[in-house]
Write a structure and sequence with these properties.
alpha+beta; two-stranded antiparallel ribbon
């Protein structure tokens, strides 16, 4: 422990990141937009009588699998405290638009503080302190290289996959339904599942009809689609 304090100069617990999700924007009156877009297909505007007609129509198209109309509304989130391991999984969703913090240009210890995600399995084991010590050593070596004029884009190679990376994502509501169906599944990786559950919770409040059939189980930190 003394050696670690010498490396970092402060308590290692400040290395541990906590994830946060911020809804930056969402289509105004998203579910109204979806209903009116859908009614264009049938020119059934005479049936437009919200909120009852909105709920009835959106639930009907979701049940029948006519999800294309959900693409007329979208949302943007800022995610902090997620690891680069997490973001590598998230950006695989090609119909989602990401803008991510760049390790080529951001300098740890100058532009922002360095921190890492601590997996629960490691936190509750005898490896916790060694894990944080190794992360601190990586940060120290990174800083030494940058100060010696090694380009940040090369020095970053020593940084662990648990290093956090801020990211902003935008997607339409159809794509978010797909992301949540895949990433909130009990077999999904725990970190992406945990962060996606936070986004799902927000969208269940902002667009409750569109995400009404997603049932969150906080005990298992997962979600599933239920018949409604």
């Amino acid at each position: 422990m003394e050696e670690t304090k010498f490396i970092r100069g402060k308590d290692m617990t400040d290395l541990i990141a906590e994830p946060s999700v911020e809804l930056m924007a969402i289509t105004p009156d998203a579910e109204r937009v979806i209903e009116l877009a859908c009614r264009t297909c049938y020119l059934s505007f005479h049936r437009f009588d919200p909120p009852a007609s909105t709920r009835e129509l959106i639930k009907k198209v979701i049940r029948k699998g006519h999800h294309s109309v959900l693409e007329h509304a979208g949302a943007t989130f800022r995610i902090k405290g997620g690891s680069r391991t997490f973001t590598h999984e998230l950006v695989r969703h090609r119909l989602m638009s990401p803008s991510q913090e760049s390790q080529r240009y951001v300098e740890y210890g100058k532009t922002r503080d360095f921190d890492v995600v601590l997996p629960g399995s490691i936190e509750n084991s005898d490896f916790k302190n060694r894990y944080l010590e190794m992360a601190a050593r990586c940060e120290k070596f990174y800083t030494e290289m940058v100060k010696a004029d090694i380009p940040k884009e090369d020095a970053r190679y020593i940084l662990p996959g648990g290093t956090t990376s801020e990211i902003v994502i935008s997607a339409n509501l159809r794509e978010f339904r797909h992301i949540f169906a895949v990433r909130c599944h009990p077999r999904a990786h725990w970190e992406i599942r945990r962060i996606c559950l936070k986004m799902l919770e927000v969208l269940k409040a902002e667009a409750p009809i569109v995400f009404d059939d997603f049932e969150i189980d906080w005990e298992t930190e997962s979600a599933r689609i239920v018949e409604s």
